[in-house]
Amino acid sequence: MTDPATDEAWARQEVIDTALRMSEAGLSPGRSGNVSRRWEDGMLITPSGVEYGDLLPGDIVVVDGDGVPADGGLNPSSEWPFHLAAYSARAEIGAIVHCHSLNATALACAHKPIPAFHYMVAVAGGSDIPLVPYATFGTKKLAQNVARGIKARNACLIANHGQITAGPTLKAALDLAFEVETLAAQYLKVLEIGKPKLLDDEEMARVLKKFQTYGRQRDRG
Predict the structure, then answer these.
(1) Is residue 45 part of a domain?
(2) Which of 67, 78, 157, 163 could bond 138 through an S-S bridge, CB–CB 3.0 to 4.6 Å?
């Protein structure tokens, strides 16, 4: 029986399926964005410049904990440094999705984080979805910026770039990317109307506490 936690072929296909869903849903146009999954002491990550619909399991790149890609394979996504930095920042992260979704990217380019305009902002693990500073893509500086952001939240906007989400699984990370894009669209609508009325820190603390059990069902055993 296949063990999803240890079967590499299954894990490679899971990365492809996630990248395809991200792209087909419009979260990242063209070949933009990238997806990774923690693997051994490093990660499995989408390759650079290959259309998601053309990917085969063997095209997914293994990058070790020192940032060295496996010999003989394709080049990893140019953003592999910030994926690896995020995994190093938080041991419980199992997967990362990075995309250039329309509304989240618009806010990122305006250097606007997403504040507590709606209680669902807490889905990212705090009272806001912060903005991490811009740095050239693929650089150590950007990796450092993203690692600092992900250490505090499960989702961040990256200035003049896009959004990044992290989760225990690829499904969780992708689901969160959809949530961030929805919140970004809603926040932009609010900004069109006027100044948003934000929830205070006490209310967001209550929401965060309730989110610890949000969506869980009792064992009917």
Answers:
(1) yes
(2) 78
CA distances from 82 to 34, 85, 127, 161 (A): 11, 5, 23, 13
Tokens 């998601």 sit at which residue? 52
pLDDT digits (tens, 9 = 90+) for 140-168: 999 999 999 999 999 999 999 999 999 99
CATH of the domain at 82: 3.40.225.10
Name the DSSP class of 129.
B
For helices 8-24 and 170-193, angle between their N-to-C axes, nearest 10 degrees: 20
Look at the chain and report how many structural domains it folds into: 1
Looking at the domain assignment, is residue 72 inside a domain?
yes
Could you tell me if residue 217 is inside a domain?
A: no
Question: Which DSSP symbol is given to 68?
Answer: P
* Cα 42 to Cα 66: distance, rounded to the nearest angstrom: 8
Q: Look at residue 39 and tell me if it is in a domain.
A: yes
Catalytic hit among 14, 79, 179, 181: 79
The reply to whether 79 belongs to the active site is yes
